[in-house]
Specification:
Distance between the termini: 24 Å
Order of helices and strands: HHHHHHHHHHHHHHH
Helix content: 55-70%
CATH class of the domain at 12-25 and 108-284: Mainly Alpha
CATH topology of the domain at 12-25 and 108-284: Hypothetical protein af1432
CATH architecture of the domain at 12-25 and 108-284: Orthogonal Bundle
Shape: globular
Number of helices: 15
Oligomer: single chain
Number of strands: 0
Structural class: mainly alpha
């Protein structure tokens, strides 16, 4: 979701107000453990496989992701160890983060969350696949960003009882949602998502992309504020959102200036979009 709502720097007072009003979920132990192992000079895949295998949800997702079109292997991974060997360290982190994000929203209505996570996981897969068509965009990083992009929406639901109804009314239209968030809660899910990403130790470029993905001026922000590699994550995800709208009922992809800017930034032509639709259609099937 993208909007035409202007983002401006957050003052320290405003940041403290947000943190005082919203409970940001603590980083789960599994995420911390995996990231600590991944940061070692010689991380051990066997250790990471043990962490994944300790949780049924992580085990199932690891095997599912390893067998997804992001990897395109003819043989199917049938065990956690086979999945871990194929995924590599960055994608193992993706698995743990994805399951941890779902677990933070376990107290919310199952039907609402199932729809939300289906869209998020579909977008993440599509973005990871499309990243392979763009030089300089790591598929694993693109997948993580797309999955985490709107992850603060469940956090907002947990903190504000009236948020779920507002979210349902806004649908997939980010413009309406962000305007209503700021009017009623004096913050928005991009800011809360940025805080969540920082709290969970995600790479700074992913946190920055989350922070600014609703900013209409993001393509002219200074490099030190929004690095070009973070901007690329926003752009490829917006393209992926546009493409998956053809396959998801009720999706409202961003059109107009934001979409045109993303195409220009990535050098995407109408012919490329047709190719991307074919790629994603195959991937989703």
């Amino acid at each position: 979701m993208n909007t035409a709502t202007t983002t401006r720097p957050i003052t320290q007072a405003e940041l403290e107000e947000i943190l005082g009003a919203i409970r940001i979920p603590a980083c789960p132990a599994a995420v911390t453990e995996v990231m600590e192992e991944a940061r070692k000079e010689e991380p051990q895949l066997k250790v990471l496989a043990r962490i994944i295998a300790s949780d049924v949800g992580m085990s199932a997702m690891a095997i599912k992701l390893a067998n997804s079109p992001m990897f395109g292997s003819a043989s199917r991974a049938k065990s956690v160890q086979q999945a871990v060997n194929r995924l590599g360290i960055r994608n193992i982190i993706n698995v743990v983060i994805a399951v941890a994000l779902r677990n933070t929203a376990s107290d919310l209505p199952a039907d609402v969350m199932e729809k939300f996570w289906t869209r998020a996981s579909t977008l993440a897969l599509a973005t990871g696949v499309l990243a392979r068509k763009h030089v300089g965009i790591q598929p694993e990083t693109a997948y993580t960003y797309a999955l985490f992009q709107d992850s603060a929406i469940p956090v907002m639901m947990l903190n504000f009882p009236e948020y779920a109804a507002m979210y349902a009314g806004a649908g997939d239209c980010g413009n309406r949602l962000v305007e209503q968030e700021r009017a009623r809660f004096h913050c928005d899910h991009a800011v809360v998502g940025w805080l969540l990403a920082r709290n969970w130790g995600l790479p700074p470029k992913i946190a920055s992309a989350i922070r600014y993905h609703h900013d209409p001026e993001l393509y002219i922000l200074p490099e030190q504020e929004l690095p070009s590699d973070a901007l690329a994550l926003i752009a490829v995800t917006l393209i992926a959102e546009h493409v998956i709208a053809d396959f998801m009922e009720g999706a409202e992809p961003e059109e107009g200036r934001a979409f045109d800017n993303a195409k220009t930034f990535l050098g995407t032509s109408e012919g490329d979009l047709d190719e991307f639709r074919d790629i994603i259609a195959h991937a989703l099937n």
